[in-house]
Amino acid sequence: MLEIRDLYRQFNGRPVLQGISMRLKPGEYVAITGESGVGKSTLLNVIAGLDRPDRGRLVLDGEDYAALDEDALTRLRRDKLGFVFQAFHILPHLSLRQNVALPLWLKGQGGRRADRQAEHLLDAVGLGDRAESWPRELSGGEMQRVAIARALAHKPRLILADEPTGNLDPTNAARVLRLLGERIRSAEAMGILVTHSPEAARSADRVLQLTPEGLHE
Fold first, then answer.
1. Of 142, 156, 132, the residue nearest 83 (C-alpha)
2. Buried-state track 161-174, b at ≥16 Cβ within 10 A, e below 16
3. Do residues 193 and 200 make contact, with C-beta atoms less than 8 angstroms apart?
4. For the whole model, what pTM was predicted?
C-alpha cells in the first residue's frame, strides 16, 4: 500500500504542493490531472524519493520515507519503483534490449532470462523487431515506448508515469495504456498516471485532480 499524508512542498518560498493526502491499494491504478505548473511532476518526484517534502508522510509497503537515508531510497527506487520520465532517460550507449534489461541487471538478474524479459516487453510495446537498435535511431514516440517497457521490466510495486502518451499516436497510446493497466492489475502492483489527456485518464480506475488547494476526487 502507498499512503501519502498531509504532504507539503515549496520552492523559493512559493507553495507547490499543499496538504496532499492519498491512499493507493495493491492492484489500484489512478490518474492525476491538473493545469500545467500545478505540481504534478513535483508530486511524482516526491513519491519516487527524488525530492524530499518539506513536511508530510509517505509510506510504501510499510517503509516510511522519512526513516530512509539516500542509499536506502536508492534501493527502494531500484527494487520497488518503475518511473516513466517525460525526458525518457534512455541510455544512448545501450541497445533497446539492454536499456529495457537494465533494471533487471541492477537487481542481479542477467543472462538469457533478462534478455527474454526485455524482448517480451519490447514486443508488447510494438518494438519487438528493434531490440538491437540504438536510441539514436528512434523517434521520440519510440523512445517513450522503450521507457515504458523499461519501467515494467523488474515488475515494480509502484509504477509512476509522467505523461507517458504525450509523444504517441492514438494507436500506440492505446497499446501502452492497456499494457500499463494490465501489468498493474495482474501483478497487484499500484500505478499513478499523470496526464493532460482525458482518454489516458479514463484508462485508470479513478481520476484525481491536483489544484493549488490540494488533490481532489
1. 156
2. bbbbbebbeeebbe
3. yes
4. 0.90
How far, rounded to the nearest angstrom, does the alpha carbon of residue 5 sit from its chain's CA centroid?
A: 20
| Residue 15 grid coordinates | 507553495
Give the model confidence (pLDDT) of 100-143 as tens digits. 999 999 888 888 999 999 999 999 999 999 999 999 999 988 98
Q: Where would I find the beta strands (DSSP E) of 38-130? A: 55-60, 63-64, 81-84
CB atoms within 10 A of CB 217: 6
Check: CB of residue 146 under 8 Å from CB of residue 138. Answer: yes
Other beta carbons less than 10 A from residue 74's beta carbon: 12
For 129, the grid coordinates are: 523487431
Architecture of domain 2-216: 3-Layer(aba) Sandwich (3.40)
